[in-house]
Amino acid sequence: MNLVVAMIILSSPGGPTAGELESLLPNVQEIAYTENSITYTINGVTISCGSIDAPIPVSELSGPLKTSRYWENDDDLILNSKAHLIVSASGPNDKKQLASELTHAISAILKATDSVAVYWGGATHIVPRDVFSEIADYIPEGALPLYLWIDFRMIEEEDGTVSLFTTGMKEFDLMEVEIERSRGSFEEIYDIGFNACHYVMDNGPVLGDGDTFGLSENQILKVHHQESFVDRSETVINIKME
Question: In a 3-state reduction of DSSP, which class is residue 151?
Answer without folding.
Answer: strand
